[in-house]
Amino acid sequence: MAGQAAKWRVGAAGVAVLGLALTACGGAKVGDTASGSDDSSGASGSSGKCGTFNLAVNPWVGYEANAAVVAYVAENDLGCKVTKKDLKEEIAWQGFGTGEVDAVIENWGHDDLKKKYITDQKTAVEVGATGNEGLIGWYVPPWLAKAHPDITDWNNLDKYAAEFKTSESGGKGQLLDGDPSFVTNDEALVKNLKLDFKVVYAGSETALIQAFRKAEKNKEWVIGYFYEPQWFMAEVPLVKVKLPEYKAGCDADLEKVACDYPVYKLDKIVSAKFAKSGSPAYDLVKNFTWTNDDQNTVAKYIAEDKMTPEAAAKKWVDANRAKVDAWIK
Amino acid sequence: MTVAVEKPPTPEPPGPEDAVPEAAPAAAVRRVSRRVVVGAILVVWLVLFAVLRGTNTLTLAAADLTDLHRWLNDVYDSIGANRNSNPLFLYFFNEIRLVIDNLATFVQHLISQPSDSRPLPQIGWLGVVGIAGFVSWAVGNWRVALLTVAGFVFFGLQGLWQESMDTLALTLTAVLVALLFAIPLGVWVGLSDRVNKVMTPVLDFMQTMPTFVYLAPLTLFFLIGGASATIATVIYAAPPAIRITAHAIRSVPETTVEAADSLGATRWQSLLKVLLPMSKRTVVMGVNQTIMAALAMVTIAALIDAPGLGKTVIQALQSLDVGTAFNAGLAIVIMAIVLDRVTTAASGREEAARRSGGRFLARRRQLVVAGAAVTAVLVYLSHTYVWAAEFPGEGSVGSSVASAADTASTWVQDNLSGLTNAFRDALTNGLLNPFQTLLTDSPWWLVGAVLVGLGVVLGGWRSGVTTAVCVGLLVGTGLWSDSMTTLASTLVATVMTMLLAVVVGVWMARSTVADRLIRPTLDAAQVMPPFVYLVPFLALFGATRFTAIVAAIVYAAPVAMKIIADGVRNVPATTVEAATSAGCNTWQIITKVQLPMARGALTLATNQGLIYVLSMVVVGGLVGAGALGYDVVAGFSQGQLYGKGLAAGLAIVLLGVMFDRITQAAARRAGA
Amino acid sequence: MTPVQTEVPQRRGTPQDSDGTPVISVRGLWKVFGPKADRVPESEELCGLTRRELMDRTGCTAAVRDVHFDVSPGEVFVVMGLSGSGKSTLVRCLTRLIEPTAGEIVFEGENIRDADDKRLRELRRQKFSMVFQHFGLLPHRRVVDNVAFGLEIRGMGRAERMKRALEVVELVGLSGYENSYPDQLSGGMQQRVGLARALAGEPDVLFFDEPFSALDPLIRRDMQNEVIRLHHEVHKTMVFITHDLSEALKLGDRILIMRDGKMVQCGTGDELVGAPADDYVREFVKDVPRADVLTLRWIMRPPVDEDALDGPELGPDVVVREATRAVLAAEKPVKVVENGKLLGIVGDEEILAVVAGQEGDAR
């Protein structure tokens, strides 16, 4: 042990000398303008009056695409310091009241939250549509739609119910539901349309996507709740099943609902405080609109091509400068 | 004069002696009859089930709510609406938040996040590696120091330096805060029986209540971000430290405390000079458990914007990117292993130093000073120069890890799914479905009566009463049917966990080689975030209850295996020798000697296995288990389901308490 | 059952001559464990019950029942009994490590049961020390720190207490080990540390709770001799608990035998052997080599007319084994004389009856 200690000491002294030598030699210093560090976080020059912009990021890739582009523009064109906060919707809305969140940049309906935070607590305000249209409904993998074209009409679903049977569905056909974040009327729908199906809760978007991906790959029978825009549609273009047409008010009584889901005009929500702040980021959020294709493109960059959100946003912004300029004019 | 009065076999304890020995024959009779009674209860259940099937099942559809759920929603809403005017918030929660937030931000600025004037954290990678290595050496030994340095450098190579440091910063902050409360509280619990009685159920509650349930309210109380994440982690991580500290205090030999008393020590003196020093070693193990628990919360806390590796895992999960998730999960595992080994070495170090005697103390002091100097130089370098501040390279090792994990996962999905589907269907249709039907389709009062009956027969009247209370409260949550569905999956998962654990545990106990190979794998399985392996499991088994069961087994089996392995290994060698000399073959030794003698370990393993399986109910809800797990997840995601989610969380706690009490009482009886 | 307290003058001529007042005087001491323990000593009816009956009736266990004795200054007082007899509880009651249920314990004129916490602590710090069966050492401290522990608790300065500790370490023969840790020492040496810790505070009374029963026989004998040596050197009053009769006989000036919490007999070793109070004690002392314990006083017979009274003289407290040779060598019976007064005579017959191991009482 004595020998070891001696060795240690020699080693330590050596490292210390080496360290001092390196200090003498120098190298790029932290904070130097010429530093080799990638200067993405420091606001490049024009840090104007924008200040900090707290942007909620809800956990799905389409949202992330919106957020990436808005954040990129806010940082690079407006000089804002953007803080992205990864939050579930409910918690993000809660954040309006506490001042922790300035904007939610893709909102799916959520009339309950609107009532609670916009009407009752008055901590949030609506600032218009994103231009994206949200569809919710029942989807089947493309191979199934091709092999049995009539399956895309709900009237024919019972014919195939036996094929959809699984270990979970108790003798009936399985309707795979359940991203827990979305409201679903599916149990009522199955009952009121008198379908021989049972709703099974997958429990997460991940579970749903994995089920559809596998079904397409192995030609398995799966029907389930899904929605678009969604990046997964670019990988496997699921086919929507036609349900009885939506008419205003047909889903008023959730017990008796027997029609399709409405088309959601996806919109943007900001905190009341942010709306009054006069921040240029507020105008950006207010003016931001784009199409489903735009979003799917950026979402695909992120989810499929595994680009960072920043890189994906840069790529899209560079290619669509005109649209961006319209938001910040 | 050498005549001694017959020496008593055991030293005489002071205090009441002459415990009345139970008559042995009576116990034997009771054991036989107990088995018969259990059988009778089950037969009666089956008969009544056939008659009464489908009545009084108390089912509740996924979107339906009870009054309790609505009431909980209202409470929740009113808290949110009044948070800016309520003095409790202004002067209490906000203050707590401020302190913890400042602490967390401070540590983050130190090692992970750029602070205002700097584009980089105060201490760069070289400094952190230096500090980590130095501290590991100083509190442990050079071997763990080497491991620490290697581990930390690997984070950088994985391309996850900043994420890892965020996780480390949050973990350290949470552990610090947790210990600040936990150790004094643990000492108190250890000293006072009354406090112990009060705290035990509270700790049970804290540990079994699914994190998801209090995550959303925490953001109401403490806002989004570091403080809430830290507090959530503290809630989850403090109980083990409290329990272990209390246990350590309680296991200080009575004679030693008495000796101090007899010398006239005050309570304070005997606490400071006797109890605390003597329980230090065990308390360090408590610190270790707290760190592990804190790391387990990393991924879940990411859901309320806690920065770090957890976020990487969650984001990768959204795009089903197994490779990236695995890479980040691996970093968590490595961090866990490093912290575990360092704390373990720290708890053993003092003893080692004592053995080596005082001769090296002087030299060691010199080494410490030298090490501190070197570390200071490294910290300075990493503060000043970019090359030492920012980890060089693109994290190519991380990319290869990710792509290897992707390849492996794809291969498994492509080649094994036929096999796994068959297995899944056999088990689900053969065992799970009938059992679940029995539980959910029986009238609730029948199942309740059966549970209470089993509680009484297995655990005695007291556990019968506990069971009755739990059954009553379960009905009160309005989620009886969901509880029964979850119960069915939980019990199936526990049975499978135990089967696996007995096989592997016995193997580990009997073969040192097997033990040495398997143990690290078990460590990894325990700390690898479940979110990482959910995607491949989903691919293999689909969104089913079975997937949830498999995930629960992966999480629970390692604990049970370790307990059983240790239990079997602790069977006295002489007993095994005696059996061998009586001509037992290996199978007979295992079944007739080792397993029966490890009965205590087996019940403990069952108990722990069950609790661990229950703690995975929520994760199961994410992959198709439905029922309570899904209720909790949905409650976390949708405001109008919040009350139901909370009720579901309570139901999980109730199931846990019920079975914990029954198994413990049964174990005590079996041991008596 | 009333214990037989045979009033026979002290054998070794040691302690009691100092001034006669006892150091410790115990009267009607009770320790009852269980719910509402207080009522047991108060109720005559409950007092009369056996342990088992009391347990069934009240759920209480009486560990110490109505014990009384005096310990003289400088005396070694041994309490002996089998496990479960209540002797360990008794010794803990004396310093209130266990709170007695009833009775009084008078130490130097002060009833210890009336002492408040502060006074009790003071007594423990200055007057009493205890040596424990399982040592009760602090594993994280060196030997010398363990020895100095009591002094540290009193608030003595470091230099002073180290000096004192080193003295005591030397006294108990541990020189050279003062910097070792307890778990580096053998059991016997650890108990020496325990002994040193007890001695360091220079207490008036030392309590030993079966200090050597966890040790190997040879080491046990060493330690017993050590205690005898220390007793000669420091002359402390000692209360010694043991379950080993030979240890009791070897160390004890007087021995109290307990059974089921009650006193059975209290007296010197030769009294126990010579005049057992009941069958329980008789069974106990059955295998004791009587010649080693009994003195001439126990076997002498009154002189009768035909005895020749011109034989050699011996004192009454000479042990039989030592007198054997003289008696057998003498032509005539030996006269047992105390203070010039003839007490009786001992002839070959009496000696042989004892040495040959004849059963039955000596009288």
Question: What labels describe this entry?
Answer:
heterotrimer, B: 672 residues, mainly alpha, MetI-like fold, 29 helices, 82% helix, C: 363 residues, alpha/beta, Rossmann fold, CBS domain Like, seven-stranded mixed β-sheet, four-stranded antiparallel β-sheet, 14 strands, 21% strand, disordered C terminus
Pick out the low-confidence regions of chain C.
1-18, 359-363
* Rg from Cα of chain C: 23 Å
Overall geometric form of chain C: globular
Radius of gyration of chain B, taken over Cα atoms and rounded to an integer in Å: 27 Å
Assembly annotation: heterotrimer
Biggest sheet features of chain C: 7 strands, mixed
Per the CATH scheme, the topology name of the domain at 4-22 and 72-93 and 115-127 and 203-288 in chain C is Rossmann fold
Principal-axis shape of chain B equals globular
Binned, the helix content of chain C reads 25-40%
Q: What is the straight-line distance between the termini of chain B?
A: 41 Å
Average pLDDT for all residues of chain B: 82
N-to-C SSE string of chain B, H for helix and E for strand:
HHHHHHHHHHHHHHHHHHHHHHHHHHHHH
Query: Proportion of β residues of chain B?
Result: under 5%
Biggest sheet overview of chain B: none
Strand line-up of the largest beta sheet of chain C: 1-11-10-4-9-8-7
The CATH homologous superfamily of the domain at 4-22 and 72-93 and 115-127 and 203-288 in chain C is called P-loop containing nucleotide triphosphate hydrolases
- Assign the CATH class of the domain at 409-671 in chain B: Mainly Alpha
Question: What structural class do helix, strand and pairing data of chain B support?
Answer: mainly alpha
| Tally of helical segments of chain B | 29
Summarize the model shown:
Chain B contains 29 helices and no strands. Chain B has 672 residues and is mostly helical.
Architecture blueprint of SSEs:
The complex is a heterotrimer of chains A (about 325), B (about 675) and C (about 375).
Chain A lengths: L1 H24 L26 E6 L3 H16 L4 E6 L2 H10 L4 E5 L3 H10 L3 E17 L1 H6 L25 E5 L8 H7 L4 E5 L3 H14 L4 E6 L3 H4 L3 E3 L22 E8 H5 L3 H8 L4 H12 L5 H11 L1 H8 L1
Parallel strand pairs in A: 1-2, 5-6, 5-7
Antiparallel strand pairs in A: 3-9, 4-7, 4-8, 4-9
Helix pairs in contact in A: 2-11, 2-12, 11-12
Chain B lengths: L23 H29 L14 H16 L4 H25 L13 H15 L2 H16 L3 H31 L1 H16 L2 H12 L3 H25 L3 H9 L4 H30 L1 H4 L7 H10 L3 H35 L4 H24 L1 H4 L6 H46 L2 H16 L1 H17 L2 H31 L1 H16 L2 H12 L3 H25 L3 H9 L4 H12 L1 H17 L1 H6 L4 H11 L4 H30 L1
Chain C lengths: L3 E2 L18 E10 L5 H4 L1 H4 L3 H8 L2 E11 L4 E5 L6 H8 L7 E6 L2 E2 L5 H10 L1 E4 L11 H5 L1 H6 L3 H14 L15 H14 L4 E5 L7 H18 L2 E6 L2 H7 L2 E6 L2 E6 L1 H6 L4 H7 L4 H4 L2 H4 L13 E2 L5 H10 L4 E5 L2 E6 L1 H8 L8
Parallel strand pairs in C: 1-11, 4-9, 4-10, 7-8, 8-9, 12-13
Antiparallel strand pairs in C: 2-3, 2-5, 5-6, 10-11, 13-14
Helix pairs in contact in C: 8-9, 16-17
